Amino acid sequence: MGQAEAGIPITDLSETADVRPGARTRLKTKDFKRNDLAGYLFISPWLIGFFLFSLIPIGISLWLAFTDYDILGDWRYVGLQNFQQMFFSDVRYGRSIKATFEYVFVSVPLRLIFALIVAMLLNTKRRGVYWYRAAYYIPSVIGGSVAVAVMWRQIFGRQGVVNAVMAMLGLDTVNWLGNPDTAIWTLILLAVWQFGSPMLVFLAGLRQIPQELYEAASIDGGSSWQQFFRITLPLLTPVIFFNLVMQTIGSFKAFTQAFIITGGTGAPLDTTLFYSLYLYNRAFVTYQMGYAAAMAWVMLGIIAVLTAINFKLSSLWVYYETDVR
To answer: Considering only CA atoms, which of 143, 145, 132, 151 is closest in space to residue 107?
Structure first.
């Protein structure tokens, strides 16, 4: 029996629903576009900030690197003149490279070593260990502040605490900040004192090492040193690599310590003239903004090359869980 004979009204489906091929696909496409628009609206503050304060300034700095610009006047295109002056005629630039590399290659290993030692000491279940972790992390929180740099300058001043203690012990006092042989070491010591951040990362890595490995090594008669070199250190190499890369990048950008402690001049004899400090002096003291922009891009290249080298060499000493067969 047909629908008409049964008394059921026949409805025209084309009037109530669009069943044409592709109609449902178009509806889904509209929904996706609507969702995409909502997503872009939510992330629009970040996108605006990224373009206004990151991408556009990066492009402008690259353009300024090939110009002679003093902020106050008009710019003048000079091609590679800034880079030629930097590499072949600027004596202070070479000194800033030397001071920065000495600071990075000495402070970073020492900071990581002390951070690992303290992390292993704090990786226990002793009473009050959480307070000790917070206390050791505080210098890293405030370490880059102006107040700490001023305090450090007072400690190592001619009438500072260090010289006062040496005088009490009958030792000759030292002009720590005025002696070319010791000035850089005061800044390195300050960097090593700020080991709280890598220490927390090491502590998190130590917590991920299975305790069953240590128990098995103890049963086999392995000493503490053997457990450290055969278990702890190999399993901690990914964390060491992470800290090495991050601390190296951060050390190349060191500025506040040298600016406050040495007065922003790199004294004595440019032994504390860090790269960032010299870049700042070129940009905002002598108003050579084009030259400073060229310096910034060279520093970016140096950091990128060193980071690439670290990643290339990591395959020789970094062990991941996927490497275990």
So the answer is: 143
Spatial separation of the C-alpha atoms in residues 120 and 206, rounded to whole Å? 8
- Quote the mean pLDDT of the chain: 86
Within 13 Å of residue 217, how many CA atoms lie on the same side as its CB? Answer: 16
What pTM was estimated for this model as a whole? Answer: 0.84
Beta bridge partners of 68: 76
Give the ranges where 143-223 is alpha helix by DSSP (H).
Answer: 146-155, 161-168, 183-193, 196-207, 211-219
Task: Note the pLDDT of residue 28.
Answer: 57
Domain boundaries, the chain: 13-57, 81-144+188-323
Report, in angstroms and rounded to the nearest whole number, the Rg of the chain calculated over CA atoms. 30
Cα–Cα distance list, 156 to 81, 162, 252, 268, 290 (Å) = 41, 6, 23, 14, 36
Q: Does domain 81-144+188-323 have CATH number 1.10.10.60?
A: no
Cα–Cα distance between 129 and 46 in angstroms, integer?
39
Is residue 285 very low, low, confident or very high in pLDDT (cuts 50, 70, 90)? Answer: very high
Q: Using alpha carbons, select from 287, 95, 108, 68 the residue that is nearest to residue 180.
A: 95
Per the model's pLDDT, the better-predicted residue between 30 and 271 turns out to be: 271
Of 310, 311, 270, 278, give the one whose Cα is nearest residue 294. Answer: 278
List the one residue out of 320, 290, 45, 63 whose CA is nearest residue 205.
320
pLDDT at site 267: 86
What letters, b where the CB count within 10 A reaches 16 and e where it falls short, cover 207-230?
eeeeeeeeeebeeeebeeeebeee
- Residue 70 has, within 13 A of its CA and on its CB side, a CA count of 6
- DSSP 8-state secondary structure symbol assigned to residue 323: G
pLDDT digits (tens, 9 = 90+) for 21-46: 555 566 556 656 677 788 888 999 99
